[in-house]
Design a protein that fits this description.
6-stranded mixed beta sheet, mainly beta
Amino acid sequence: MDKAIEELIKLSSEKTTYIYAGTSFGPYTNPLGEKELPLFANILFNSYFIEFNFPYLYRGVYIRNERPSAVPIYIYGMEYDGGLAPVNGTYEISTSVPWLHVDKDTVEATLVEDNFTLAGISYIDFYKTTGVVYVTIDYSKLAKPGTYVGYVYIDDPSTSYIDGAVPVVVTVPLNKDGGESKASLSDVEAPGQAKHYYVDVPIGTQELKVTMSIPPVDENGTFMGRARPYIVDPRGHIVAATGSSTGFYYLGPGGPATYTWVIPNPTPGTWEITVYSSTFTSYFTGYPESHYNLDVELAGITASPSKVFADYDEPGVHLVSVEYKNELGTVNVTPFGYGLGSLDRLYGYIETINQDDWQVVDFINATLGQKLYYFRMGITAPQDDNADLDLYVVYFANDTVLNSYAPLLYDPDSAFLLILYGYYGLIPGVKVYLDQIGPTSYESFDSFMPEQGGYYFAVVNGYDVPMDNMTYVYYHQILADNGQITTSEGPFTFQSGASKAISYNLNVTSEGTYLGGVLGLADSETGVPLTYAPLTVQVGMPELEVVAGGDLVLGEPSLITIKILDKATLEPVKGGETKVIVNGKEYYAVDGELRFVYTPASLDDISLNVKIISDEYKDFEGVFKLKVSEPFEKPVTKVEVNLVDQEAGANATIMEEKIESSKVTLVVNGTENTTATIMIVLPPKATVESVTTEPADHLIDWWVETGKKATYLFVKIKFASPVTVHVEYRTPREGISLTLLNFLGYRWYNMYHEKFNETYQKALELGVDNETLQKALELHKEAEKYYNEALEVTDGNILTYLGDPSS
């Protein structure tokens, strides 16, 4: 106890460093690329960072819906001395898992008051930090579907503890490889455990089917588990589960062995399936765990590209193309295009409200004939900033529902009940949206490609109004078709499994950025859109200059830097973040610079296909080639073994290592069903004869990179138990130069020629047989012959010609 108290006293005497750190990347954006979180209310009422003039940051990196390969982390330091105060500092950076890499291991975080934009929010006289670290996420190591968690540690080296950490949470969906339409898995859970799985649902999906089953009963007729699923949409709403809607709570004892949920028109994005194992699994089944299977199937028509970005130098009629793939079934479709629109216009109205009022301030007609593809409605600028007004959005699916229930919104008592019942889905054809509601009077709701055929009402409630007849502003924005997008393609029958490219004409009349447009296919009979691709068009924008570089080393995490410059001034592009796509992977650059980590597994040049998407500049596309160097400066003379890559959770270790003159034997262990890659460094010009493993089927692949300093053998293996790797190779013997051989021959002839007669005489005296003596005499005469010929060719000066290969 005394030692513990002593340690606490020691710690209390240290300075206290507090780290405010996070990212501007958020996983929720609308199809226009606008961030849906944070709500403006979060900005106003999070006094933690407002008090210190720090910008809003997501305190963790949450990878869902979008999967960028690198995101920035901003670091602000504070110290406690009777209270927290911002300070400049130097911090050490590290990560907790092998699938996370940072671009630097030390960062200086200097705070400067400035005006800047971050995550779409403008800050005036706020602290801007130089402490920016890029964290690269290596998705190749995240093979299994599920949730992965790692940390970026931020440490003040002058303290005895780690001062800050930013969690990185990555969701890997079941259909992770190219967004397949089908996926399956089998898993096991302990009683009371819950596991989370994810499904990517693309735009155009008409049906999401989820089937869960408990494996077949054993020979005694017993279920091998008892579990239940929750199926949750991208915004966190439970859409389907066991319960009153299914008539049972668990699959297994007390319920069926298999059940299928079919969800029509699922919201695009990443859905979550949480499977919970009953705490009474063993009691009901006799099994200590719950075994279950999940099968997911998507049906729909997908568009490629899923988002269309077009850049043109001048206005005019321009052509774009979208390819559609039908995994829905044979259907009659009609191509359509809505747009072009811009969000530079907003219509506002001054309203007045009192305590507990319910006001219908607007409705938007989203029926098919309107060809509406985007709207936003919101409230702002209350007369008293302490007021709390709530914006409710109520949707009526058709004219019949509208006429039956919309009048109730105009009566305060009826309005509350209608919203309550509508939110819980108790009134067919009525939906209520509440996610936008917060503790302020700054709230907005938007919808891209809203549900077709209905009406959206904006209803404002005076939840907390400090004054009578308080004013506030209601506003809306609406984007609908204006005839600027056309296509010559008419209706056609789209066969199941078929693909078809459709061309669209864009009539762009002026320079600028058009953030709104839609290209898609509609059901020919109903006119309801079946799939679509959002469209962004830029015309007459300034150009970018882009450079890329990096010191890439084979088998080592290497830093790549991309600079984004204004082509006219060659100054870095300022003003927040820019989306950069490198070889199909998304990254985010900050103030014209992107830094990310890449581990080369080949000595071939690295090709970077770079595309930059900017609201302020013409989009850029280009290819850069970077050299890869060897990790050694001098030729390798002995074999080295390095573990250069491993899947998340592999915990791979080299347990035994035996190196012989032409063989390498390794014993490597790791987590079952995970993979790892080993780099075996052999001398230059070595030839790999064979690579085998025990067990034999645990060798996934091997390849050789031939360098000047060494030969590099990469071996990829899969674990189920310790794997023994056998490598056989050979190296060429070291050669002796021709000049050296000539010189040695010359010296040896002259050295032993004079001793020959003396040695020959002694051999006679010792009784050496005649056959041996005769053979020695012949070889001696032959040597004299060649030596005399050499004297003749060199005019008696053999030494002068010894270094000439032609002599």
